[in-house]
Amino acid sequence: MEENFLQPPDDDSVQVQNPDEQMPGLAGYVKSKFEDSENGRRVHEQKWLQAYKNFRGIYDSTTTYRESERSQVFIKITKTKVLAAYGQIVDILFNNKKFPITLDPTPVPEGIAEFAHAKTPLDDIVDPYGFEGDGREVPAGATSPDQLGSKYKDLPLEEGPSIAGEPQVSPAKEAAMEMEKLIHDQLLDTNAVTVFRNAIFEASLLGTGIIKGPFNHYKRVHKWSSSEDGTKQYDPYERLVPRLEYVSCWDFHPDPAATHIEDCEYVIQRHRMTRQQLRGLINKPYFDVEQIENTIAKGPNYQDKYYEDTIRDDETQPNTQENRFEVLEYWGVLDAKFAREVGLEIGSEMGEFEQVQINAWVCGSNVLRCVLNPFTPARIPYSAFPYEVNPYQLWGVGVAENMEDAQLLMNGHVRMAIDNLALAGNLVFDVDEASLVPGQNMDIFPGKIFRRQSGVTGTAINGLKFPNTAGENLQMYQISRQLADEETGLPSIMHGQTGVTGTGRTAAGLSMLLGGASLSVKTVIKNIDDYLLKPIGECYFQWNMQFNKDTPEIEGDLEIKPSGSIGVMQKEIRSQRLTALLQTVANPMLAPFIKLPNLMKELAIAQDINPDELVNDLSEAQIYAQMLQGLANAQQATSQDNSPTGQQPPNVGNTGSVPNGTQGASGAGNDGGSIGVGATPTAGEAGFTGNAPQVEE
User: Fold this and answer.
1) At a CB cut-off of 8 Å and minimum separation 6, what does 225 contact?
2) DSSP per residue over 67-106, as a string?
3) What is the pLDDT of residues 392-402, one digit of tens each?
4) Dihedral pair phi/psi, residue 669, rounded to 5°
5) Whether 324 contacts 302, CB under 8 Å
6) Radius of gyration in angstroms for the set of CA atoms belonging to the chain, rounded to a whole number
7) Which of 169, 72, 177 is nearest to 119 (CA)?
8) I want to staple 166 with a disulfide (CB 3.0 to 4.6 A). Which of 118, 208, 622, 631 is the partner?
9) Which residues, 6 or more positions from 445, have their beta carbon under 8 angstroms from its beta carbon?
10) Which residues touch 95 (CB under 8 Å, ≥6 apart)?
């Protein structure tokens, strides 16, 4: 009889002392993987704890002070640097009010034509393939003419670029634009901006940001309809949308041997659920109602981890979540043999030890859900991006870890300065007790009287003043702060520091400092492009191809291009370069080589203008050009009709400074006068009214 994977072996000799430690079946398998991940990230948890304490300005509980140390001040420069990095990244990524994800067709698109043109008589030539060099070669990887896309399938179009100037379209490019608009709408529809912001903040602080999804989510759409009697009736409905979710590093447990999310054999997310949240899983697909009820009947099983009381800023109560359930969400591989014993439908062609991708939810010893990975192709629906790449770990390095030493130095020197000022600002007394009457109170206050029994006056009690070394300590503090600037790549001028000295006192020096800071931020943005935006964009593309049945025109061979790093470039310089390129269009010899619509869109983006609102495409541009030409012709015709007979319209054919309708200084002109600028007649000239009258002979 084959052993049941979900049940313990029926053997009386087996002594189970603690069922929670020796869980059988799939629950025990997931629990063991969870423990392996916990052990693998223990070192990183210590770094995260220290980073969080430096951010919050909390000294470690193990920190001890000498009796002479009175000051316990904490300088929160870590918080300032983390927020500065976070603000810079968010401003760069979302300054255009648009997600930094673009889609373009691949260089050789498959499944949809790159170009198509209106059919011409040239297409009816006996030899349809033409000859080499005639410009009609079919590019490598081009698709058949019946795959122009659903939008053009009924139109008289032929695949390939235009030959003789006939109208040309780009089905692949338009498919990419349709998909891009759809993804942006889905991201905005599910409040993805907040998800990205949370992940970026934790990446700045702890070094790694985690985002889950996209996964299926039924969003409630609010709708009001009118009944027959005219009253309003609330009639909501649910719509399937892809949704993202922020996951904290503390709840994310990946394969400890992996250095990238794609290398993970499994990933486990730890949930803290209330009784109500656990019961709410009953309404979700493929969850076992009986197992959920059994879990609730057993009662809460959540136990605080050693770091959770520190995160809550409360180390006095070890477990404040006793009424919660610990639910482990497993994404990863499972042997086909065990998958069949769980009840999953696995094809007979797959061997027992071949692995399949599954999704399982486990609480204690109960399996709440177990299904095959629903995505095609199968993937682990998590994206982990580092603030700074650690080449040998999945976990990245954050701002707080980079400046940990500088933070310790700043705290130490400031505390020393304050303690020294407390000593230097007060007198310390040297008392010769042999010169005083014994038994006196040695407290010092104004009007105090000491009884002296011997010695010279003024020698029994002497006030001593300690030297003031606070200046040296504060100087070291400034050096430590500069060290923090260098370690993080975030100069203090970026987060509002005034009184900048040294290089930052000049405009060129300040520009150099900001330029160096932009390089550091640019590296972080590039990591976000590679590890977050591109995978998220590809996952949204795959989700729409698999689950979105309403938009067949979006199908195509598309390439996801994250555009976050573009925002790092100085917009003024980019705008100037684009404007200079735009001036090239004035040259009729070079204008045909410029993609004017793309140039106008890039110029609008560089100036923080939405190109979709202001820049026309080619068809719209042609319409507006015809309208403007018509208006110009109408205006010219009106000007000619209003001009006197035999005269030119105003400012037409006149290149001099004399207005139209006047003559030069010869005196010949309209209405007997030369009345133009610079042409007024002088005494003795014809037309001057002060000349003596001429006597006729």
Assistant:
1) 232, 233, 235
2) TT--------HHHHHHHHHHHHHHHHHHTTSS-SEEEEE-
3) 999 999 999 99
4) 180, -170
5) yes
6) 40
7) 169
8) 118
9) none
10) 567, 608
CA distance 240 to 394: 33
- Kindly report the number of other CB atoms within 10 A of residue 219's CB atom: 12
Tell whether the torsion through CA atoms of 20, 22, 24 and 25 is positive or negative: positive
Residues 664 and 673: their CA atoms lie apart, in Å, by 10
Other Cβ atoms less than 10 A from the Cβ of 232: the count is: 9
Contacts of 7 (CB under 8 A, 6+ apart): 24, 25
Token readout for 460 is: 């029994």
Q: Where are the domains of the chain?
A: 19-37+265-379, 402-501, 570-639
pLDDT for residue 129 is more than 80: no
What does the pLDDT look like over 264-274, one tens digit per residue? 999 999 999 99
Tokens of 318: 């070890």
The pLDDT of residue 118 is above 80: no
Residue (of 148, 150, 163) closest to 116 by Cα position: 148
What is the number of helices (H) and of strands (E) in the chain? 18, 17
Backbone phi and psi for residue 556, each to the nearest 5 degrees, phi listed first: 165, 175
Cα-Cα-Cα-Cα torsion 335, 339, 344, 349, nearest 10 degrees, comes to: 40
User: Which residues 6+ apart lie within 8 Å of 386 measured at CB?
Assistant: 203, 207, 208, 395, 396, 397, 527, 531
CA 548 to chain centre: 25
31-69 pLDDT tens trace: 999 999 999 999 999 999 999 999 999 887 766 666 666
Q: What does the block give as tokens for 128?
A: 């349809």
Distance CA 268, CA 303 (A): 17
C-alpha 632/C-alpha 195 separation (Å) is 52
Q: Computed from CA positions of residues 320, 298, 2, 10, in that sequence, does the dihedral angle turn out positive or negative?
A: positive
